Amino acid sequence: MRIQRCFTVEGQSPYEGVPFRTTASEIRNPDGSVVFRLQDIAVPAEWSQVACDVLAQKYFRKAGVPAVLKKVPEDGMPEFLWRHVPDQDALAALRPEDRFGPEMDARQVFDRLAGAWTYWGWTGRYFDGEADARAFFDELRFMLAAQICAPNSPQWFNTGLHWAYGIDGPAQGHWRTDPETGVTAPTHSAYEFPQPHACFIQSVADDLVNENGIMDLWVREARLFKYGSGTGSNFSHLRGENEGLSGGGKSSGLMSFLKIGDRAAGAIKSGGTTRRAAKMVVVDIDHPDIEAFIDWKVTEEQKVAALVTGSKINRKHLNAIMRACLNCEADGDACFDPKKNPALKREILAARRAHVPENYVQRVIQFARQGYDEIDFRVYDTDWDSEAYLTVSGQNSNNTVRVTDDFLRAVENDADWTLTNRLNGNAAKTLPARHLWEKVGHAAWASADPGIQFHTTINDWHTCPASGEIRASNPCSEYMFLDDTACNLASLNLMQFRESNGRFDVEAFEHAVKLWTIVLEISVLMAQFPSREIAERSYRFRTLGLGFANIGGLLMSSGLPYDSDAGRALAGAISAVMTGVAYATSAQMARELGPFPAYAENADHMLRVMRNHARAAHGLTSGYEALNVAPVPLDAANCPQADLVDHARAAWDLAVAMGERSGYRNAQATVIAPTGTIGLVMDCDTTGIEPDFALVKFKKLAGGGYFKIINRAVPQALRTLGYDDRAIATIVDYAVGLGTLAGAPGINHETLRARGFTDAKIEAIEGALATAYDIRFVFNKWQIGEDFCTEVLGLDAEETDNLDFDMLGALGFSKTEIDAANIHVCGTMTLEGAPGLKPEHLAVFDCASPCGRTGTRSLSVESHIRMMAAAQPFISGAISKTINMPNGASVEDCKESYMLSWKLALKANALYRDGSKLSQPLSAQLIEDEDEDEEAEESAVEMLVAQPAQERARIVAERGVTQLIEQVKAAEQRREKLPDRRKGYTQKALVGGHKVYLRTGEYDDGKIGEIFIDMHKEGAAFRSLMNNFAIAISLGLQYGVPLEEYVEAFTFTRFEPAGMVQGNDRIKNATSILDYVFRELAVSYLGRSDLGHVDPKEMAFDAMGDGADEGKAPVPASAVVSPGYTRNAQMGNLYLVRGGAAAAARADVAEAVAAPAMREQTVKAEVMAAGALMRSGSESLAVGTVAMSVSAGGNASGGGMSRVAEARMKGYEGEACSECGNFTMVRNGTCMKCDTCGGTSGCS
């Protein structure tokens, strides 16, 4: 074949116009520890640091590269393509540690890839002459360096190691079909024939241990995972549960074997460093075990929830039981006897109500009796790579249900559907089709699995039906072909074809498509495969997977909304050009080398499919051959670049005409893959056919750290839309922020100086603002200095140690002031509300989910589906894409999305509803945390814990007043003044070690009318705040506010000081000063014994007690009645006798009041974490639980912000990467990838 040059000049190095730089690649864990470091690597100067890191960490060969090489002459091979091997003589002269090492230059990688492809291309006679081979070699090297295209990861791992460096190893059980003889045989080398294929589909027979059986599949999968590939299988041949076995007995069913395979896959690190094993499990909708399969991940998610919640409940109650044993002052074993230790009895009953196992309760008491003072009960979290998820099954695969048109029509018509046995084909069960459909919708809604593959549509577009049905796909659902076949992928970066005037360079694009089609075809020739069947079928069908990435960035740069007719038309036209040119190239190779061996038996079918593709390119709505569902044709009228349509139609006309004459070299040519890691290598803003996920991104610096930048497509889009440079700068500043507090509203240099900040400290803060996404993270003791915080600002040293400490709040700035300053300094990270931006242009900047802290716009569910439908008619395989749905989407929405996908002729669909995975926190948390009053009770309590003491008291008072103001109209009531000489009492107690004096004042009828709160040795600010708070409460009481309302508002509030209470005979623990005060008032004035910790019956006259008071004289009246108040010095002659009718009546009244109150408080305890944790008797446990929930992905506290919330605000998923630990995971097709190290979560 003739190879033209488009990007390079003959006789010049392809790197001539590509500047390189020397840098270091370093990836760190969040704690600062180094995951990977490589110094002094040479990379293209224009590459981002993330792209360099991915190349160095993932794709550089880490060892075994000889320091000195020599060529191995080969007859008939051009010298520039001769293989290289270690020069042993030269290496012997070097020190042993200098003889071998890693790749250190990106050009080494580009040369070995392009060189190996060209070497095998020459071997396979793909070039007319040496000049064509040289052009091919140069063009590919340039395209790799210029980030125009990239192959799938296994190519980077394996291709060229033997050709470039002589690296080899023992055979790994692979097979290869000799292209000259057609004979399939085992290979005898690990790297001479590389494994470049990323995607496999493997068959599995209904057999336990024989070849191609169930257990054999796990071995074949492991062989693929080791080399960085993914695989999918349709398990529908396996018999269902309770079907008969040949030796008698019943089968354990499909699910038992799926769980084995899932655990096996989870133990393997795919490619060594890239990701967890990626696999797809497909089951037909008529399988007898289909209901269990659909509900599999729903059930497993529930198990995780039970593990996480149960572990926290158990630890809370078991620790409370331990404390009840330890905090007892009784003698001997009385502390461990619930009959003698009322606190222990109360905690045991609470544990029983929470269903804590009785043997664990007894075990803790036994531990305490043996002298232990703590119990270590492990708490699990919902991180996707945590022990909780590793404990359950179904976490290492994507699950998909195969549905036929017959089933979908049965759903539409509300007809019955029959599940059939695998052995005899008899009906196993008949049920309404809508019942199964409801299960599918609910499972997708609840756990994001299973996806749907439309079996009939897939096989309508099947080029080789004479060789069998398409029954399965690869893990990401883009490669769909016969069982036991493979596909190697490559993706073109569409942004590299956008010219400065905005035109898409279709000519260069066609050139690149042609060359990369040849690359992928050569990769079939040179490859080895994990089984005989795959080697034979790859030789017979030669399927390829060329695709593209960055359509979202291209559309935005062009000023086109992702959700628009023009955007869809452009995507459709590019897809049509790509596949049309790929098939034309395949036909050209068939003319030179012959069609794929299985073409003859499938020629009529394949030409029919090609004609249907061409009809869609010509925009026809009818006349398609043998299609059950018509595709969405190319929308020429709305395509913003007319010549793209012309090129697309010409390419398809040529592909059909050449195919009719010569056939095709490849049964399939294109797919649209998720392009996760290779998308990072190409610095793509968006992956595959996905839209963007954020408008403001954080770019990694070579020396570590990040700086904030606007998505590079945004300024280009604004320029395309007609905005001038000044308007663009204003809009960008709105999104990114000005990076300075100078002139900021609320918090600025002047207000900081007023609070004691010096110019030097303000300058230090200013230096950190440029990289901040929230100003609260700049105000910390590490930035300002601990001495300055404590001595000048007067902050508590212990509180400043907390990573979530809100210094600005502690300094008196309100939330409104902080938010306003945040927007000024850090920007909104959205363009909604940007000054000067026209409302009609907002749609151009819509992303998959709302952007920033104030964004509300996002792409609709339907927009994702219709974009896929615009491209699908021009893709050989399918499209890997996630349909993003908001948390509020319903089960019905899921079912409708699947149904719309079928009617628009998509081949597959996978949904992800925000929050459907426990491991991925809600996007809505950041923006709704303070909006949902009732649902935010727990997060509000957690927020209080993170506040300084003064701020906690202020928030509590503010919330209490807010609750009461609606019920009390003070202006309409008259103040009832207290008598000048009034009775009351003074209660002294220690709360968490802090002395508190509570004094009450009463009306003549005994009703409370005022309180005084004083604290001993407390800071002036907090002591004064408590005094004034008491005055405010007193005024409310005198204006008629019922004491009950204050009790309901302020009990269970949590802030320091808190803890054990000493000196009060009824209250033994409090979660705050206010909690203690209003418990005491409720017990004393309202008879609310439920708010005390000591049962009043235990203090009654007939309580058994332990005899300590036996024989003592009666209590004198002066012990409870003030002689000074009565002005009666003879009070000492009067004595009180416990019991009597009055006491009994008072007890009855108290019980009547307490019973409904206790029920009400039980309900409240279930809603409020503070209430529940208070009853466990431990403020420290409450704080620990809050911290634990935040670290596990819960809501961030209001004062600070957890790393999960931080990640979500940046536009990431809020998940930690299992490779590097950073919270920079973004959704990528059906899996997630890390923007820091390029690692992926597999495809689960």
Strand content: 5-15%
Q: Separation of termini?
A: 42 Å
Number of helices: 46
Largest sheet: 10 strands, mixed
Description:
It contains 46 helices and 33 strands. The protein is an alpha+beta fold. α18 crosses α21 and α25 (713-720) packs antiparallel against α26. Strands 7, 10, 11, 14, 15, 18, 19, 20, 23 and 24 form a 10-stranded mixed beta sheet that branches. The longest helix has 31 residues, at 296-326.
Question: What keyword list fits this structure?
Answer:
single chain, 1244 residues, alpha+beta, ten-stranded mixed β-sheet, five-stranded antiparallel β-sheet, 46 helices, 33 strands, globular
Topology (SSEs and partners):
Layout: E1 20-28, E2 34-44, H1 49-59, E3 65-66, E4 69-72, E5 83-86, H2 88-92, H3 96-99, E6 100-101, H4 106-123, H5 130-145, E7 149-151, H6 153-158, H7 161-165, E8 175-177, E9 184-186, E10 199-201, H8 214-226, E11 230-234, H9 254-266, E12 269-270, E13 275-276, E14 279-284, H10 290-294, H11 296-326, H12 342-353, H13 358-369, H14 387-391, E15 398-403, H15 405-412, E16 416-420, E17 427-432, H16 433-447, E18 451-454, H17 455-460, E19 485-493, H18 506-526, H19 532-541, E20 544-549, H20 551-557, H21 565-593, H22 599-617, H23 642-662, H24 676-681, E21 696-700, E22 706-710, H25 713-720, H26 725-736, H27 749-754, H28 759-769, H29 781-784, H30 786-792, H31 797-800, H32 807-810, H33 815-826, H34 861-871, E23 882-885, H35 891-903, E24 908-913, H36 924-928, H37 937-945, H38 949-965, E25 986-991, E26 994-1002, E27 1008-1015, H39 1020-1038, H40 1043-1050, E28 1059-1062, E29 1069-1070, H41 1073-1085, E30 1115-1116, H42 1123-1126, E31 1135-1136, H43 1140-1167, H44 1169-1175, H45 1179-1191, H46 1203-1210, E32 1225-1228, E33 1231-1234
Helix pairs in contact: 4-5, 4-18, 8-9, 11-12, 11-13, 16-35, 18-21, 20-25, 21-23, 21-34, 22-23, 25-26, 38-39, 38-40, 40-41, 43-44
